[in-house]
Amino acid sequence: MRLHSTFLIALLALGSVPALAQTPPAPAAAPPAPVESSPVPPPAASPAPAAPAADQAASPQSAPPPSPQAQTPGPAPAETPATPAQPQAPATAEPAPQPAAPAAPSPSAPVTAGRTTLFPNPGDPTNVEEGVLAAKPAAVLEGRSSWEDGFTNLKSAFARIEDELKKAGIAPTGRPLTVFVHTDDTGFRYQAMVPVAQAPEGKSELTPEIKFGRTPEGKSFRFVHEDAYDEIDGTYETITAYLDAKNIESKDAFVEEYVTELTDAQDTKLKVNIYVQPKE
User: Fold this and answer.
1) pTM as predicted
2) Euclidean distance between CA atoms 105 and 143, whole angstroms
3) Cβ distance 10 to 240 under 8 Å?
4) What is the pLDDT along the chain (280 residues), one digit of tens a residue?
């Protein structure tokens, strides 16, 4: 933000000072128990009787040939392993408890959705727009910051205002904005503002630090910065060149209005409206 200060101070030299503003499969362990117990009793309890029983069952159909003795031991053990396949059925029933998982919804809506900007229509980064600002009630927090910590301090200031407004039950109606009151080589003084529908009756402050005030008003030029905040110096350079070319002397009212959320200084999707008021 070092260059940021350079361009703001340069604009000051032109006659302006930046100002105002699932459940775990436990049953899976149970099925192995019946699988082990069922095969053990049949072979151990009656290995010898099992042969006569099989012979008696097979004798009425194939008694003449003696060869079935070789066949009876073969198929009998081959059929017994088929019974352990039955305990596998509970395993297929385990997916049933899974429907309990999707019972955790987490909806969240952006807090600043639907708020208006000082110029009601969307801005165009390729165009300079002229219009008139209408003053709006706002919660205002004043502070001072170095250029290096500017983004972080402004983001923190807006978070404080939003938090206090929520505690007081006051709904913000406009986008957060910064009014630069004074700038120099070391840093700047600012007014962080969040527009509201109206201040509570008979109250001039939200907290001892956050007062109620009004946003800037009057004729203004709007420039649009659409890139990372760290790259905003390029937009201020464009503003300086435009004022120079048009021979426009600006008033003490450089305003930054944050159309998108202040998430990170390197967020390339950031959009900022910059309002410059000419002297009349």
Assistant:
1) 0.63
2) 40
3) yes
4) 554 655 565 555 554 433 333 434 444 444 444 434 444 444 444 444 444 443 443 344 444 444 444 444 444 444 444 444 454 544 444 455 554 444 333 333 334 557 999 999 999 999 999 999 999 999 999 999 999 999 999 999 999 999 999 999 999 999 999 999 999 999 999 999 999 999 999 999 999 999 999 999 999 999 999 999 999 999 999 999 999 999 999 987 689 999 999 999 999 999 999 999 998 7
How far is residue 254's CA from residue 64's CA, in Å, rounded to a whole number? 114
Q: Give 270's Cβ-side CA count (13 Å radius).
A: 22
Which residue, among 241, 248, 239, 246, has the nearest Cα to 273 in the 3D structure? 239
Report the candidate in 6, 45, 31 with the shortest Cα–Cα distance to residue 84. 31
String of b and e for 51-75 (b: at least 16 CB within 10 Å)? eeeeeeeeeeeeeeeeeeeeeeeee
Q: Which residue pairs, CB below 8 angstroms and at least 24 apart, start in 55-63? A: none
Q: Which residue has the tokens 């938090």?
A: 163
Distance CA 204, CA 213 (A): 8
Q: Between 232-246 and 2-13, two packed helices, what is the crossing angle to 10 degrees?
A: 10
- 221 forms beta bridges with 130, 276
